[in-house]
glucan endo-1,3-beta-D-glucosidase
Amino acid sequence: MIPDRCFGSLLLVLIGMFSNVLGAFIGVNIGTDVSSMPSASDVVSIIRAHQITHVRLYDADSHMLKALAGSGIEVIVGVTNEEVLGIGQSASTAAAWVNKNVASYVPATNITAIAVGSEVLSSVPQVAPVLVSAMNNLHKALVASDLNFHVKVSSPQSLDIIPKPFPPSTAAFNSSPNSTIYQLLQFLKNTNSYYMLNAYPYYGYTNGNGIFPIDYALFKPLPSVKQIVDPNTLFHYNSMFDAMVDATYYSIDALNFSGIPIVVTETGWPSQGGPNEPDATMENAGTFINNLIRRVSNNSGPPSRLNIPINTYIYELFNEDKRPGPVSEKNWGMLSTNGTAVFPLSLSGSSQIMGNSTTVFCVAKDGASEDKLQDGLNWACGQGQANCSVIQSGQPCYLPNSIKNHASYAYNDYYQKMRSIGGTCDFDGTATITTNDPSYRSCMFTGSSNASSGRGLFPAGEFGPVSPLGEGPKLSVSKIRFVVSAACLFIILL
Ligand SMILES: *[C@@H]1O[C@H](CO)[C@@H](O)[C@H](O)[C@H]1NC(C)=O
Ligand SMILES: *[C@@H]1O[C@H](CO)[C@@H](O)[C@H](O)[C@H]1NC(C)=O
Ligand SMILES: *[C@@H]1O[C@H](CO)[C@@H](O)[C@H](O)[C@H]1NC(C)=O
Ligand SMILES: *[C@@H]1O[C@H](CO)[C@@H](O)[C@H](O)[C@H]1NC(C)=O
Ligand SMILES: *[C@@H]1O[C@H](CO)[C@@H](O)[C@H](O)[C@H]1NC(C)=O
Ligand SMILES: *[C@@H]1O[C@H](CO)[C@@H](O)[C@H](O)[C@H]1NC(C)=O
Ligand SMILES: *[C@@H]1O[C@H](CO)[C@@H](O)[C@H](O)[C@H]1NC(C)=O
Ligand SMILES: *[C@@H]1O[C@H](CO)[C@@H](O)[C@H](O)[C@H]1NC(C)=O
């Protein structure tokens, strides 16, 4: 038995640190078309070990919902596109869905939203006529269960439903006054819900045929002569991500709705692609995700809505190797299922993200069995290569001479040194994370701001190897067909 598996990545640590510190959150989508999907409890261990606070499921898998109980993690559950029709046609089907998939798990599992379908308007238009009716039926069922204040109903849409997203100020849904999108917005407004947007600068860039510089898609600074400015508002758009969110705000405005916040339910960048997908690289994926986290974490909204943070769910946790489509389609994950990071992150790029964020310590859990703690301690000081010299007799952390105290020191030493390369705070369930510095008297825990070792939490280490994924069948499936015509071009060359 291995007390701690090498789950995790630097990236997720960064996410976790940020979610503690700032208002805007970064969540993660959990797709399951994975040939070696870890068990639900392992998935939750990974998420918890890295303090991810928000997840979105594409269904309402009972194992996941049970495993998430008591974690405090906020969960979006999904109505699949196949289920939308029945729920739209029958209030009792909706009520049964809510009872089975929501009411029976809350409050232990913190379900805060139901995502109804996935990109229905663009990808399954035949379901669109019943979409809002399905949302209404679900909302009524929540009202009947007295859950409507806690659980919102919304429906993730692709940016595709905005034919010309650039410049943002003139963007508009392709809609007539009583269209589905109009009714959907009316529903969101009436129920105090939010708009769920799937926004992929990767597709905006790759389908833009060179109109936009890749740096714009990757949140990198543009030279001053190539600033991207909306000619109507004169807002500077530092990233395509910001422009996509603003295009959606302006499209909502154009239908005379206001006060509906946007949450980005999907964004990401594939780390590997086929021969015709040269931009799907580990380097680009690492840059995008790293910069996305920094962007969202600064708490500001897009130029037209500076005060509304852009809460965002990264697509996605694991590479989904079973998904059909181009090679890139299988490579949106941040982690392999054994927990190794799929792409390296530039540590220099992340130093700003690190900021002064609180150090997280790993200590033995109250009530953990002594046998398991002893196993964990042995492993940490042995294979785990923790420096256990200070818990030896006569050294500063020897007293109190208990297995729990010694395990805490060893777990934490291991964790501080190894987490950047995938070490987690688990130790067969006997360890837990805390922001309280466990140091006492002259016993300084590794990572304590008073310890001489300082904050060397992120040694330049190796990252997990990249999974060698085979070529998949080449279907031309893409999440977004992102139409950029020459007319949309508004790069102003100053
Ligand atoms: C569930 O999430 C809501 C919304 O953020 C939060 O206010 C609440 O404290 C959470 N509940 C639990 C039990 O963690
Ligand atoms: C709009 O659509 C709703 C639902 O389909 C329908 O009940 C209503 O009569 C329509 N209103 C107009 C003005 O067409
Ligand atoms: C929005 O409001 C303006 C001004 O009241 C009106 O002219 C316009 O027709 C409205 N647009 C829609 C889509 O309702
Ligand atoms: C936050 O990000 C936005 C968009 O990139 C940028 O305009 C703004 O200056 C940033 N704010 C801070 C405080 O870094
Ligand atoms: C971070 O630390 C530096 C130097 O100690 C300090 O000047 C700065 O204000 C701190 N920033 C935050 C956000 O606490
Ligand atoms: C272990 O920690 C002790 C005390 O802090 C230190 O003197 C020693 O050099 C460390 N050993 C290694 C191998 O880092
Ligand atoms: C760290 O040092 C400061 C100032 O010397 C002291 O107030 C604080 O209690 C120390 N923290 C710990 C955990 O020893
Ligand atoms: C993790 O999985 C990847 C891809 O499947 C593999 O290349 C790597 O060797 C594995 N790492 C460990 C530590 O098992």
Remarks:
- The first strand starts at residue 26 and ends at 30.
- The domain at 24-349 is CATH 3.20.20.80 (TIM Barrel).
- The chain is about 30% helix and 10% strand.
- The radius of gyration is 24 Å.
